[in-house]
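Kindly inspect what follows.
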Amino acid sequence: MKRFVRIIKSKLVLFLLLLFVFVYLNNSSFFTEQRSGAPLLLAHRGLAQTFTMEGITGDTCTAERIYEPEHPFLENTIPSMEAAFRAGADIVELDIKPTKDGQFAVFHDWTLDCRTNMQGKVGDFTLAELKKMDIGYGYTADQGQTYPFRGQGIGLMPSLEEVLAYFPDQPFLIHIKSNDPQEGGQLARYLETLPDNRLQQLTVYGGDEPIAALQSSLPGIRVMSLATMKSCLLPYLAAGWTGYMPSACENTQLHIPEKIAPWLWGWPDRLLSRMDRANTRVIVVGGSGSDFSSGFDTPQDIQRLPGGFTGGIWTNRIDRIAPLYQNGGN
């Protein structure tokens, strides 16, 4: 009996050892295709004014806490997007809000109070009325002693249609800033008018309900929400060690906080290759996920990424990050 138990134990140990070796080799960079090239750079809100993230909440007026300006661009404007692409961005992220006259304004905040010289919700105004506002009015780097962008933001709030017409061949990440399914339906009706090759250049993310509504009308477009992230990552965490790829991970986008990424099976190269085969884009954002606006904004930030990283990088300072990968850099 003791001999039998010893045999069982030895076989169990051998099985666990072989299983460990399999899991390790199947999720390491060994025996995987060599990845090369520069990472994909995603410019958050174009080239924008940045601000301290300390103590920030959903109600914080970020225009009142910007750093001393180093460039003249304001977020979510055509000049800021043009500057981002010129600097080296592969994709630009922008925010949309429905207007009173059924269009989409490109603007971040729910209300106009923080950034502009007007008050009220974006949806209370027509696009023509919004264009008369000064979107640079509320920016200050010194607690209101000076306002360096006042008078410079009049007419700069674009519509989504204007942005896509101005940049007919550039990729965008469109952010629905609500959980209203009607916004998803409204956006789907507009995007349905675009040719298929243009839709392939666009990704939409936002609340679960508008993204579900959008996807039901446009099943081929790449989307992301908390629900789509969970439906992909939870089964992947459970079984991805085998190489299994959940169907929910196909044709989507994943924003992975840098502190969580190393816990995903195959990080980084094998995971990226698996997601490439599923036509899914992996974007790494800064921090632990408490704020998905945190990015890699300095050369020191980039050093936290694995060497030779070829996935997507979320940045608020494309002007600082893109040069690291140009002319054979990094």
